[in-house]
């Protein structure tokens, strides 16, 4: 992907007063390029944690570069680089785990930065655009962190009128929070859909699955396999999730599928039933290489996804698939849910 960078700001980090300076500069740029108040607040938290990390763990001095990044599809992002002269991060996976700290602190900084970032890198190659900024071309600054956060695309705030959607989800009996969730994101001819199961149940599973849901919405423009890698990065330090991910294009009559974990799915087409194959692993922990499967998807076809909170006792032949997908989704959840887990069903029919 070709990108351009502009509005490059380079700031020195030397004491705690620079936390506020860097935060204000990053939030100002974030708002200028289209972030709303909530997402600008997340940029503020990321910046605060990065500068604080330099002061506490990075030798007390460093530099921060903030800029606008624009993709070849004109999608905008804020990109932040932060460098220091500390000892570096010896164990990344341990360092981004909430609660871990080598100093007297809460140990949530790097994990927070990673979760709020769409891209997160340690010591990446410096782009040519930065040659004149002296961000990394400065003796003593040996380590860097790069983060990037995309502005959500407005094209997904629509409705694909060719599709009928049915979804039902309930938490494990006795639990207030649901560790399962689903997401539907439309443009006029393209739909991104997913079913997400946070490992286990309760609060931690709920947090992991909803973070994954938010990231799918933010990354809806990405290819499905790239999106899976981004989800994997963004959910490090959480309980982890399993995900079944669809992209439906009603202009080309194609359906793309990729899955990690034990979410069951099938496509029912005129020529018969086709199972959707997920690969093993856990998003945020040990994900296998995602594989994309492509199918014809024509009027009258439907696709169904279920978490493992739905038992295997039901059969697709038991339902009348001419009924509205919502009716069938609710029937499956009401009659075939396990009592020891959350349960979710998503059905999407290409309306004739």
Protein traits:
single chain; 352 residues; alpha+beta; Heat Shock Protein 90; Phosphatase 2c, domain 1; 2 domains; five-stranded antiparallel β-sheet; elongated
Molecular structure report:
The protein contains seven helices and 15 strands. It has two domains: 3-150, Heat Shock Protein 90, CATH 3.30.565; 154-350, Phosphatase 2c, domain 1 (4-Layer Sandwich). The radius of gyration is 22 Å and the shape is elongated. It has 352 residues and is of the alpha+beta class. The strands form three sheets. Strands 1-2-3-5-4 form a five-stranded antiparallel beta sheet. The protein is 25% helix and 31% strand.
Shape: elongated
Q: Helices and strands: which structural class?
A: alpha+beta
**Going across the major beta sheet, what is the strand order?**
1-2-3-5-4
User: Radius of gyration, rounded?
Assistant: 22 Å
Question: What is the fold named in CATH at topology level of the largest domain?
Answer: Phosphatase 2c, domain 1
Number of strands: 15
What is the count of DSSP helices, taking H or I runs of 4+ residues? 7
| Domain unit count | 2
Mean pLDDT: 86
* Biggest pleated-sheet summary: 5 strands, antiparallel
Question: What amount of the residues lies in strands?
Answer: 25-35%
Low-confidence parts, pLDDT < 50 over ≥5 residues?
A: 94-108
The arrangement of helices and strands along the chain is EHHEEHHEEEEEHHEEEEEEHE
CATH level 4 superfamily of the largest domain: PPM-type phosphatase domain
Residues in helices, as a percent range: 25-40%
CATH class of the largest domain: Alpha Beta
Tell me the CATH architecture of the largest domain.
Answer: 4-Layer Sandwich
Distance between the termini: 37 Å
